[in-house]
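PROTEIN DESIGN WORKSHEET
SECTION A - STRUCTURE
LENGTH: 389
TOKENS:
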């Protein structure tokens, strides 16, 4: 066991000062995710944190260092108090990024080999501070890892949802990647290429990387993402950008809130018309494929499959070593033969009357959250306002 020193960061200014070290640490992680980056957390807190009578969010980030000063972990936490004041408020210690859909994986930023030391120190600290919180939400616990084992050993911890993530290692060439695909997928790609040609359609592929062009590319993405969500298909695709706040958050990240060259928007086009699109984020030599959208009018041509195939080919040819196909178990990801990584959420209930009461409120909020698969506007509002997500 290696001793670690823990300090608290409670201001945006201090978080900004930590960002260069944090970013260097995040580049060493696997899988590497945009949601581990300091720029994601700063942008999220500035746009979504609440400070009003009904609810207040306060930064409560933990920073763990080795005795020589080297950064070992960042735990991007905040305290959510609801209501903001009074003896009956619920105090939830949770990760920054408590939105319904935007932040797909939340958790501690540390190397896998440091998990045991990091979580022993972190859990010991939270245990001593238990009078300051009623519920603690732990996210991003890799199934079977040291973090999961240590968290589950704590009294009052309950396992929550499981989130699968899909990571595809890329070979040196597109031909090598294609050769390793299943026969069914190869046949699907062949039909994707031939069917439009038979109907006299010439699809083209474009990658938008310039910030000056991001505005138009994202507006096309929002429109097609909404169209995909509204389409009558066997697979339900909720609209992650139904709110203006969510749209503005992504616009800000793409145009100025992330390092230059991070964002790209992949487009399958017919002339000037965008038929399918997917947002991507590059972190080092890793590409994270985020949300997508397509025009249901062209679904018979499997335009989304074609767009993803071209995005993967572009990634290979650009020297990308690995593509994260994002979270969620569906055939559009598993068909490429990726590795599957499972993350757990966990709920830690304080052994107090306030903790037990807060636990009941959390259960009600989770019921509202589950309705987001087929939500009414009222359910969306209640689930987002509950802030225990």
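SECTION B - SEQUENCE
RESIDUE ASSIGNMENT:
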């Amino acid at each position: 066991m290696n001793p670690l020193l823990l300090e608290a960061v409670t201001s945006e200014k201090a978080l900004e000062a930590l960002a260069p070290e944090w970013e260097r640490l995040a580049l060493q992680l696997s899988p590497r995710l945009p949601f581990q980056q300091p720029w994601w957390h700063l942008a999220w807190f500035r746009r979504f944190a609440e400070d009003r009578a009904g609810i207040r969010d306060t930064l409560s980030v933990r920073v763990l260092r080795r005795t020589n000063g080297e950064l070992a972990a960042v735990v991007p936490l905040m305290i959510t108090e609801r209501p903001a004041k009074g003896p009956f408020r619920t105090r939830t210690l949770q990760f920054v990024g408590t939105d319904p859909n935007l932040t797909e994986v939340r958790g501690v930023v540390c190397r896998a080999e440091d998990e045991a030391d990091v979580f022993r120190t972190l859990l010991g600290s939270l245990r001593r501070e238990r009078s300051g919180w009623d519920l603690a939400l732990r996210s991003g616990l890799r199934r079977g890892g040291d973090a999961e084992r240590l968290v589950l050993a704590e009294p009052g911890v309950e396992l929550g949802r499981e989130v699968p993530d899909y990571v595809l290692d890329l070979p040196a060439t597109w031909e090598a990647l294609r050769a390793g695909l299943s026969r069914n997928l190869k046949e699907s790609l062949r039909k994707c290429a031939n069917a439009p040609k038979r109907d006299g359609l010439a699809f083209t592929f474009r990658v938008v990387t310039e910030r000056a062009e991001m505005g138009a590319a994202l507006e096309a993405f929002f429109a097609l993402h909404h169209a995909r969500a509204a389409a009558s298909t066997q697979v339900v695709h909720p609209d992650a950008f139904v709110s203006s706040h969510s749209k503005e958050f992504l616009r800000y990240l793409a145009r100025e809130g992330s390092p230059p060259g991070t964002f790209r928007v992949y487009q399958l086009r017919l002339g000037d018309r965008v038929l399918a699109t997917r947002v991507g984020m590059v972190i080092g030599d890793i590409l994270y494929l985020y949300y997508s959208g397509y025009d249901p009018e062209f679904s018979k041509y499997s335009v989304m499959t074609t767009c993803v195939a071209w995005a993967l080919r572009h990634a290979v040819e650009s020297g990308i070593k690995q593509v994260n196909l994002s979270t969620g178990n569906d055939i559009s990801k598993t068909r490429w033969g990726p590795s599957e990584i499972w993350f757990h959420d966990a709920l830690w209930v304080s052994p107090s009357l306030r903790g037990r009461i807060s636990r009941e409120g959390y259960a009600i909020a989770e019921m509202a959250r589950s309705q987001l698969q087929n939500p009414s506007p009222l359910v969306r509002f209640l689930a987002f306002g509950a802030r225990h997500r």
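SECTION C - NOTES
The domain at 4-163+342-386 is CATH 3.40.630.30 (Aminopeptidase).
The chain has two domains: 4-163+342-386, 171-320.
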